[in-house]
Amino acid sequence: MRALHIITGLGTGGAEQQLRLLLRHLPVDCDVVTLTDPGPVAEGLAADGVRVVHLGMRGNRDLAALPRLARLIRRGRYDLVHTHLYRACLYGRIAARLAGVRAVVATEHSLGDSQMEGRPLTAGVRALYLAGERLGRSTVAVSPTVAERLTRWGVPEPRIAVVPNGIDLERFRFDPGRRLRTRARLGLPDDAFVIGGVGRLAPGKRFDVLIGALSRLPGDCRLLLVGGGGEEGALRRAARRAGVADRVVFAGERPYGCDPAAGPDSGPDLPALASAMDVLASPSAEEAFGLAVVEALAAGLPVRYASCPAVEDLPPEAAPGALRVEGGTDAYTRALAEVRAAGPGPRTAPEAARHYCIARSASRLMDVYAAALARTVPEPRSSREPARHDR
Fold first, then answer.
1. Pairwise CA distance, residues 17 & 197, whole Å
2. What is the Cα–Cα distance from 222 to 189, expressed in whole angstroms?
3. Which residues lie closer than 8 Å to 94 by C-beta, 6 or more apart?
4. Whole-angstrom Cα distance, residue 380 to residue 370?
């Protein structure tokens, strides 16, 4: 089978890194097209041996990209097209149809109750989404919660398949030596209580709540923010106003794992940063899955979160160290103070982390591919119409 994955961009985001991890476990010959931003994940995919093409799309209304994408699909003779993220799902589904590929699968990574990928869910966004969705065979939801949202939107239930995001458990396994090295590199004291926040630096992630909480916590507490985005400047200013600028570390966008080609100055990767933390705090009020929470659980961290379908869709005993926090700065101050007072516990992964093994997710996705391809196979002539014979 030859499959083409189409994604809006390949910066260091959750959906982008999830695609790279997934391709390492899919027994399929895959290429990738990025409509925009061939960033760090594009370089990582190329290092993995995956062919990556940058389409050079100039914006949401760059309709000239559509025939270019259709020609690329046609030349590649792909059996299946798999799209990721809003813009790629819309353009990719149309281009696949123009190219004659009927087996089209789309993954919905970021559908919340009120927004998608940071954009408000207006009537126009919803209408355009549903129009494009009808051009595919199947829509993959990354959690049962997202599947329910899609159903409420009007996507027929038989067209929805749940394939959770997956993680590489071994990469996130806690390593005390890596913890010490990473803290030394970031200038974090060995005895500091480090609160981690992972995700896009965007208003919806509510990292300002953690800065406010830090200002009320003892001086041995530090905040380690991992991610990039337009909100970084505002968060730095908030830290200065709160008097904690010297206790906040902005690590920037970090890869899922270090590439062999990366030099010694490439900086710590996400698993190393997780080892350096003492707790993961996720105050985002609206998530489609909660990948950062699951990765933190794999690193054996206690977690305090506002929204995480990945945890909420499982029995409570699957993640006893993950507790929901309702409220803002006051609530997070109390919750984080309680974790600090409890002291360090064993850094072992709970059942919830093992449940989201990437190999299991890849296996489920192959079932979706098989079903999409089966629906494109013509029925035998005898079952459709009688054969016509020349006289």
1. 17
2. 9
3. 66, 132, 135
4. 19
Rounded Cα distance between 132 and 109, Å, is 16
Q: Is the sign of the CA dihedral 177, 183, 185, 187 positive or negative?
A: negative
Q: Is 7 helix (H, G, I), strand (E, B) or coil?
A: strand
Greatest pairwise CA separation for the chain in angstroms: 94
CB neighbours (10 Å) of residue 226?
Answer: 23
Amino acid at 233: G
- DSSP label at residue 288: S
Closest CA to 160 of 169, 151, 152, 168: 151
Residue range 247-281, pLDDT digits in tens: 999 999 887 655 544 444 567 999 999 999 999 99
DSSP state of 380: P
Q: Tell me 167's DSSP state.
A: B
- 374 versus 378: the higher-pLDDT residue is 374
Beta-carbon contacts of residue 294 (< 8 Å; ≥ 6 apart): 165, 167, 310, 311, 352, 353, 356
Please report which helix (H) or strand (E) contains residue 334, including its range.
Answer: helix 329-342
pTM: 0.87
Question: d(Cα 149, Cα 143) in Å, to the nearest integer?
Answer: 10
